[in-house]
Amino acid sequence: MDKFLFINIIFSAFNIFIIVYAYSLDFFPKKWRKKVNQDSLVGFALIFSTMITMFAWIIYFYLKYLNL
Fold first, then answer.
1. Which structural domain range is residue 21 located in?
2. TM segments (predicted)?
3. How many domains, in total, are found in the chain?
4. Cα torsion 62, 66, 67, 68: sign
């Protein structure tokens, strides 16, 4: 369970990094944003990383409280 907790913390840290990056995209110049064109990719990464993190924490607490 300790390893799974560590994995969940890593997923959460990665998710926070993507959230901060998505928020900071507005601060980059529009010319650069058009050049790299990754707004939709960041959105998809944010959705899926949040979903994976949520399910990982749900599984962790499910296993922890049922002592499986």
1. 1-66
2. 6-28, 40-63
3. 1
4. negative
Q: What angle do CA 43, 49, 52 make, to 5 degrees?
A: 145
pLDDT in tens, 2-61: 899 999 999 999 999 999 998 988 888 888 888 888 888 888 999 999 999 999 999 999
User: Which tokens is 64 given?
Assistant: 């922890």
Which residues are CB-neighbours of 49 under 8 A, at least 6 positions away?
Answer: 11, 14, 15, 18
- DSSP letters along 20-66, please? HHHHHGGGS-HHHHHHH--HHHHHHHHHHHHHHHHHHHHHHHHHHHH
